[in-house]
Amino acid sequence: MADPRGQGGQGGPGGPGGPGGPGGGGRGGQRGRGGRDNRGRGPRRDRDKPQSDLLEQVIHINRSSKVVKGGRRFSFSAIVAVGDGKGKAGVGLGKANEIADAIRKAGEAAKKNMVKIPMTGGTIPHQVIGRFGAGRVLLKPAAPGTGVIAAGGVRAILTVAGVNDILTKQLGSNNPHNVVKATMVGIKSLRTVEQVAARRGLKVPEVYGLRGQAKE
Predict the structure, then answer these.
(1) Are 151 and 138 in contact (CB under 8 A)?
(2) Would you say 168 and 154 are in contact if contact means Cβ atoms under 8 Å apart?
(3) DSSP-derived secondary structure for 196-209
(4) What residues contact 14, with CB distance under 8 A and at least 6 apart?
(5) Where are the beta strands (DSSP E) in the chain?
(6) Are the C-beta atoms of residues 94 and 106 closer than 8 Å to each other?
(7) Angstrom distance (rounded) from CA 90 to CA 157
(8) What is the pLDDT of residues 97-151, one digit of tens each?
């Protein structure tokens, strides 16, 4: 005769039909936590996305607000530098109501505006001053081991481009928009000695004034 209270029978907590048995819904059953853990989880969405080899640095983020009925409405703008670390770099501007969206838009714009930087070893071939508006940026080649002597947007652009040794100086406005644009103007005006010789129809020694060695 079964126990009228039902505590010691087969349907009790310890029995095969109870909460802890194989057919029960307790933690020890097949439908418990062990069953959920054995199922595992699928791959995350961000792991399925292709990884980009481009380097990205945020130069400046600006927040602006507009007073509307019921409060303020904020929007953000971001300046981002993108490069491959092998001599190519670009700068883009993005605007959105969220910081993440602004950075994403700026990165996409920077990828479309990437330019090739002429390099001699780990530095630039010659000195140049980039000008845009009131901003002026001096770019000067440096000896190996000097490093990137720059700050702000100039340093971000040169770092993602893969320049290892360079001397820079901001001579005009320190507005980040003017600085990065002046830097890109200076980068676009760089030329290697081979490019100059080809444009003038000369040989490389003739560009340096060594006409005797050019004839040999």
Answers:
(1) no
(2) yes
(3) HHHHHT--HHHHTT
(4) 20, 21
(5) 55-68, 71-83, 88-96, 115-116, 128-132, 135-141, 148-149, 166-170
(6) yes
(7) 7
(8) 999 999 999 999 999 999 999 998 899 999 999 999 999 999 999 999 999 999 9
